[in-house]
Amino acid sequence: MITARLTVNGEQREVAFRPSATLLFVLREKLGLTGAKPGCLNGDCGACTVNVNGTAMKSCLMLAVEGLNQTILTIEGLKDSPVQHAFIEHFAFQCGYCTPGFIMNINSLLKKYPEADDYTIKEFLSSNICRCTGYQEIEKAVKSLLKMNREDRAGLQQDV
Amino acid sequence: MGLIGKSVLRKEAWEKVTGTARYTADYPATDSLHAKIVVSPYAHAVIKGIQTSKAKEVFGVRAIITGEQFPLTGEEIRDRPVLAKDKVRHYGEAVALVVADTPQQAKRAAELIEVEYEPLPVVHSPTAALMPNSPLVHEQLGRYKREERVYPEPGTNVANRTKIRKGSMERGWNLAEVTVEERFSFSPSDHAAMETRCSTAEILPDGKVYIMTSSQAPFMAKRLINEYFGVDIGKIVVETPFVGGAYGGKASIQLELLAFIASMAVGGRKVRLLNIREQDMLTSPCHIGLDATVKLGSTRDGKIQAAELLFLFDGGAYSDKGADLSRAAAVDCTGPYGIENVWCDSLCVYTNHPYAAPFRGFSHSELLFAVERTMDVLADKLGMDRLQLRYINAIRPGDTTPTQVKLNNSNVGNLPGCIDRLKQMINWEEGMIQDLGNGKIRVKGVSCIWKTSTIESDAGSGVILTFNRDGSINLISGVIEIGTGTKTVLAQILAETLKMDIRMVHVQMKVNTQSTPEHWKTVASRGTFMAGRAVLAAAEDVIKQLKSTASCVLRAQPDDLEVGYGKIFLRDEPDIHLDIKDVAYGYVYSNGNAIGGQIIGRGHYNLRRLTYMDKETGAGKPGPEWSVGAQAVEIEFDKKHLTYRIVRAFSAVDIGTVLNEKAARGQVMGAMSMGLAFGGRETFVFDKWGRVLNPQLRTYRPLRYGEHPEYHVSFVVTPQLDAAYGARGAGEHGLMGMPAALGNALSLAAGVKLNELPLIPEQIWKMKQKEGYSHADL
Questions:
Q1: Which residues belong to any copy of the 2Fe-2S ferredoxin-type domain (chain A) (predicted)?
Q2: What CATH number labels A2-155?
Q3: Fewest Cβ atoms nearer than 10 Å: which of B597, B688, B693, B696?
Q4: ipTM for the assembly
Q5: Residue A67: CB partners within 8 Å, gap ≥ 6?
């Protein structure tokens, strides 16, 4: 066991874990942050996606020790964000199990590529699996946000 | 209130987008031990011995369990040991169970258990299983306890046979001027819900059993633990929170039993068992496979006179729900067509494959792949338009089903209407093939669907409504929120009936079999129908009670009162009223006198007038109503490389009144997506020893973002008269015609009959090879 401090959702959390523990295991079983889900435990499904320094990361493929001195954001740290609103309005989830992973993936996508084209969207989102929807609703939710981004920037330019 | 049809946002929406929605494995496990399953590396082998001494030495191990002492299980035939005993019958079968303090310790110990096997010959398919010299999967088939209406054939690998004998085949074949016969085959595959199954079990000192499980059937888990283990049914409490996708796979009772025996082995302490993906696919039940032969005969003008169908379902090692699946396929064996003369044998056959759970559509996407592919072959032989052939034979009110149920304007949807709608949607008149140049073509394939739901003839659903002091209502139903949004739809039904603000309806999402009224199982597209009727009944109960109390205060007959808009008021003088909030907990007069009390509404609905099927002819009424639809797929096909892209997918379905537009579209599109994945790419890949080579999501690949086509969904509305606001089942239907439509498009595009799934380019290439195709031809 090692004891370390992780920065999660803007808080420093002291936590003891085995050196071989994955970030997903520590988030769920030690910190009670169960929004990140286990789906495959080998990076295939994306249900465990969180943001590490703003980058979408599969927390089952990362050791908790690799998260030291990094800024970790989980779905629990995302409050009232446009992605969450878009998912609700566009019915972009059903069972909801893959949803935190998708939302964290999209959160990172929008921050990095606010004007993402179809190729970039696919590049990001094809790493997660949703088994309930046909993806059309998720596509609409993402594109509504990109549209919002465009309108925001257009508005900004006019202001200037 | 105008809530019917509105895309009301889901009641659990914010929980699901904030990570606060809890699934079974999300409940803290600090007080529980952890179990790990040891599985068989063979598909069929004798267990010679199990060595556990090394495993016992692992720190933290509390118990190691092998298959000796437990009763046989199974819903229709008790053929399955909780843990394999004497022999294993499929790759991945549970052989032993380790319980330890942590998941890591349990895993370490499980790896140290040594099982000695003696391999046996493997039964690879239902067709092979019926060969006279085939090994038997169950030597003791005749000795198993079973339900009355399942018909195993001891001494063979037949777990169940359902016969349909309608009309006269002799007459049918005499009238037939054109006949076609096709054979079909596909292996088992998987549901691949994103949440792997998870169960926890705890047994208290007084014998109470607490189970939490990711299931579509907590009430059935309760019933079966009572039946198998003799625990008093009232002492068993099963809880199910949100379920992360199910699609039928979580309707079988399996992991709960393992968690229960694990807890028994450690003196009742709480034990959690969370499937890893590989075991979720192999050890827990999967999606059924099928070998089928379909023979159709029609007159030259396209009227089908005879249908002869043989379905050999690959039930795998245990019959569990496979027996029932094969029966359901017999019920709707012809596809949605009015045919006078029908012969069908539908068998559930034992093989050494993982065994089958229900799968969205309950054997219908499977049988429809065979029937609808044959319809295209028949259309071609007749030289007839493919949709025209389907239109001519489309099932209509006045026709009878294969089990001889007479259809009417309420119990069947409008299939001709769906076909007409589909023609417009896909611009059928422009033709089925368009040449895009570059060796690519765009091709359309079509199919039609139908389904009734053959669940237990006495299946029921109950609803309780309790009031809060502000006049808002808690809606408590046994329907599991597996992702379908049914509980939001129930809230809509309630709010519409009580003419109230839907924000005043609070839906309890979690189900607890002790405090929630039973909903048989959340399966078969029955949630909205059965629970919807229960909500209507509970709403009537509430109205009656509100009026009763209010009639004293308002000094008027209850019959003169109306309920709605948060009030109870005189019909002809609405100004004379009481607020519901002042009556919901009893009314208090100004002097302190009180009458009434908290209003608790109750409602119930049981299926009615369903009958068992006759053993020899299948005659009977096993389901209440048939939803129908017409579907299409448009592909872009590369003639040289035999690769393709699904460009668009279409559904024109009659699900009766649409209660929540966006949720209904989501159900249909999601089901279509799953059907395209099943038809196009998903299968277990077996080697010659019956091992599954691809039990992971990187080798077993569901559709991913960007691989999805454009979806087009249109609703034809034929209300079902005895359903809440006329809604029909909708959860499964989008899936059912997709494999056939894809097969029809690809067969046309490639110019070769494609009768096996999945439809990967390699499969197309193999079929082309058989016909002497070579690249030199291009």
A1: 2-78
A2: 3.10.20.30
A3: B688
A4: 0.97
A5: A6, A23, A26, A52
